[in-house]
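Let us work through a complete example step by step.
Step 1: write down the sequence.
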Amino acid sequence: MGFMGTTRFLAKGARSKGRRVYFRKFAPAHRQWAMMKNMLNDLVKEQRLEMTLPKAKELQQYAEEIVFLAKKNTPYHDGLVESMLTSPESRRILYERMVPRYTDRMFHFTRVLNHFKYRFRDSAPMATIEYVDRPGELRPANPVGAARDQFVAAEFLATRRGRRKHAGEVERMLGRKNPAHVPLDEGVLERCRFECRKLGVGGAVLGEAWALERRGEGVPAAAGRKRSAAAPKEE
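Step 2: predict the structure and record it as tokens.
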């Protein structure tokens, strides 16, 4: 079965060093960690690597962690980053390009794509690992932050399926107390409120009520009824 297949069945002890039974074991621990650091350094510099599928899955956890630690921006976490990356060039790319790129993305910085093909010499499954949200990526990643709000509004107004799918998210978007936190034009917001009224979504009415309160025009009757119904009864 090969090295990867047989080492899964080794019992914990001197060989596994206390690691899980199904730990991906490519080499002895001192060699495997050095190999992972070299591949991580190359991935940060190239932003995309092609390798075997088990190595890509094992490398993905370190590729995610390195961005998470760099975003902490503390001396302790910077020391951890310096211990994982082996070249000054990769550290410069991480702090100058990748940390600003992933300001709004909390996790899922990488993508592993299985090629469903096998290397000729040893029949190893091949895959590609890459960082998302960059020019030239294999496919667009799901947007985050302000881009997510604009994407949801466009999908919500495009089709009936989009209105059914994104009704809850649009309701939460329109229910924000501060309209400045919604990166949409007033015309798009009005269309979203109109469609939400047709669907019977309550967040649109509350969002309109808060907007009227800020302008000093009073509260609509529907919003007043909704708030009075939610208020506890006084005995």
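Step 3: interpret the result. The beta strands are 48-52, 110-118, 125-131.
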